[in-house]
């Protein structure tokens, strides 16, 4: 009898539908309930932007795909990633730093933002990730993944050679700390460990960066794809996408 009072069974064809006997909620209570999906008003949104602007540091992720940077001197950036800038900021292209060989230490990749102000960096379809290099820590990064590096970070272009019918050189930047860097990746940046006993093979398009102490060899695949073979002790950072 108690079970019969707690619930009523209603036949529905070949099935039994259990309907609770709990009191229904009035429509007025439902309409007055707060809606978690209600967007903020324009005024509230702009107020949040103002508060964020006051609290911004040197490197701040304002959105998953937008990095705000404070410039006070020089900041090296990938020029194609600069979305906007404010203040007394000028852009010096990488070609201005070229030496006798026609390219600078970044291989013609990194421009410079000089002056005092702020800039916003990002790339469509990619998320930004902040990393901090300690003194003597080094990271090899695919040039397409670089957003910005602090002026305290040393860098040099060291291409990975891939043997093939027509030899290929894969551009790579070696970054050495101390300092902060920002990289961009398709989706989440994922680190995979490499051990001396088991080498790691990664498709070139999925490779974002790796600890610079690793040995890396490029291999041209039989199906036209190119892979990198990593050996030693360290980490490789991969993405679920292709190099741009």
Write up what this structure looks like.
With 244 residues, the protein is mainly beta. The protein has one domain (42-238): Double-stranded beta-helix. It is built from three helices and 20 strands. The strands form five sheets. Strands 3, 4, 5, 6, 7, 9 and 14 form a seven-stranded antiparallel β-sheet that branches. It starts with a helix and ends in a 6-residue tail after the last strand.
> What share of the residues does DSSP label as strand, in percent?
over 45%
CATH superfamily annotation: Mitochondrial biogenesis AIM24
What count of domains describes the coordinates? Answer: 1
Main sheet makeup: 7 strands, antiparallel
CATH topology: Double-stranded beta-helix
CATH C-level class: Alpha Beta
The CATH architecture would be 4-Layer Sandwich
Measured between the Cα atoms of the first and last residue, the distance is 70 Å
């Amino acid at each position: 009898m108690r079970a019969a009072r707690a619930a009523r069974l209603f036949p529905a064809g070949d099935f039994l539908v259990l309907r609770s006997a709990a009191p229904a909620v009035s429509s007025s209570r439902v309409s007055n309930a707060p809606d978690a999906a209600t967007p903020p008003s324009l005024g509230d949104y702009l107020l949040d932007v103002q508060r964020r602007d006051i609290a911004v540091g040197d490197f701040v992720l304002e959105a998953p795909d937008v990095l705000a940077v404070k410039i006070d001197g020089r900041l090296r950036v990938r020029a194609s990633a600069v979305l906007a800038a404010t203040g007394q900021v000028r852009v010096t292209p990488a070609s201005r730093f070229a030496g006798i060989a026609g390219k600078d230490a970044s291989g013609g990749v990194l421009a410079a933002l000089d002056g005092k102000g702020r800039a916003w960096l990002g790339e469509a379809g990619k998320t930004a990730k902040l990393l901090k290099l300690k003194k003597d820590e080094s990271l090899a990064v695919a040039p397409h993944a670089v957003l910005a590096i602090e002026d305290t970070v040393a860098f040099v272009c060291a291409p990975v050679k891939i043997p093939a019918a027509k030899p290929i050189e894969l551009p790579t930047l070696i970054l050495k700390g101390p300092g902060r860097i920002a990289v961009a990746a398709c989706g989440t940046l994922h680190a995979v460990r490499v051990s001396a006993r088991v080498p790691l093979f990664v498709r070139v398009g999925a490779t974002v960066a790796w600890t610079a102490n690793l040995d890396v060899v490029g291999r041209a695949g039989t199906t036209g794809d190119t892979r990198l073979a990593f050996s030693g002790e360290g980490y490789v950072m991969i993405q679920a996408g292709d190099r741009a």
